[in-house]
Amino acid sequence: MTAQTASMGEMLATAVPMVRTLNLEFDEVTAERAVLRLPDQPDYHNHVGGPHAGAMFTLAESASGAIVLTAFGEQLSRAVPLAVRADIEYKKLAKGAVTATATLGRPVADVVAELDAGERPEFPVSIAITREDGAVTGEMTVVWTLRPNG
């Protein structure tokens, strides 16, 4: 874990109590990719003994938020990042710890150029949720925007 990854994890755990509640672990955070892990915790299991769908949604959304804050952190003085919509598909039964890997769907420079032009850019973040054996248990897309301040 890098210092940047640790500080992003601490920042999100402070700003978003659900990150702290679920004990999400930050394995990697860059402007292109974020990898977060939800440990296996019986308090967050569903009726079949795996992570609850809401916990997996929160894991994936948090991974998308981590990449957005890292990629667009320099823009926070003039715009606030907001999730616009999310779509999740649960594909296989998840058991044990699960990992969410998020990737930014547009180049940062293109999004910033739209913001510079006075627009409110939207951009997707794709997330794969995998279990420990590498099988993809879910896929999610979160569309974000940078809403200009004022």
From TrEMBL:
CDD domains tied to this protein: PaaI_thioesterase
Domain of life: Bacteria
Protein name: DUF4442 domain-containing protein
